[in-house]
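Researcher: Next sequence.
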Amino acid sequence: MISRLRSDIRCILERDPAARSIWEVLTCYPGLHALVLHRLAHALWTRGLRWLARFTSHFSRWLTGIEIHPGAKVGDGVFIDHGMGVVIGETAEIGDGCTIYQGVTLGGTSLTKGAKRHPTLGRNVVVGAGAKVLGGFEVGEGAAIGSNAVVTKPVPAGATAVGIPARIIEAEEGVRREAAASRMGFSAYGITQSDDPLSQAMKGLIDSASTQEHQIALLWQAIEKLSQGQSLADCVPPGAARRENFEADKLSQMVGK
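Model: Next structure:
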């Protein structure tokens, strides 16, 4: 218990620049208080003391504004920042090192008792403020859920989910991700430099239109040379495309089609 408490305090000091001392974290961070009380409630739950476990979680909710069902499984080094309005359901599982901001719901979409109704978060997942993750699926390790996103399907490891309903942005190349990780430690509030798939799709369309204009100009140059009696081989300008390279499937995936 003491070692886990030390781990919780350490992760808060590492991820929250507003945390100034261990004493401040111990006394003024409701996310820490909610996790400590949840571990007590979960221990009671697994021992069959269901009412006492629920009452403990109910008291924790009154004290902290964070509702964690005693049946939920929470790993080490989890940081619930601010925390007001966070709701974590009975069959939810939260991996080590996850960061959850205020207003987050890890909810269920099934009414079947005993079924896996709530999501599973892999290690080091960041869930932005106000996000709703609904269903018994998995959010992969290192993924990020953008603020106010509504996620109803699995998120691959390292990917980002944004929007309503959430659209999946695949992980960026490893070099950029590692550089960002070493600089920031993690993505606060699930924000990335390219977290708007519609914007990215529009940029792709603009780039494609620009390329098409260039290719049309090259085509007219070739036609002019042909009209002057030059051979076809001499008429094709450098840089002329000989095959289609418009990535329609990639753009469709960005906008969730």
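Model: The first strand starts at residue 67 and ends at 68. The chain has eight helices and 15 strands.
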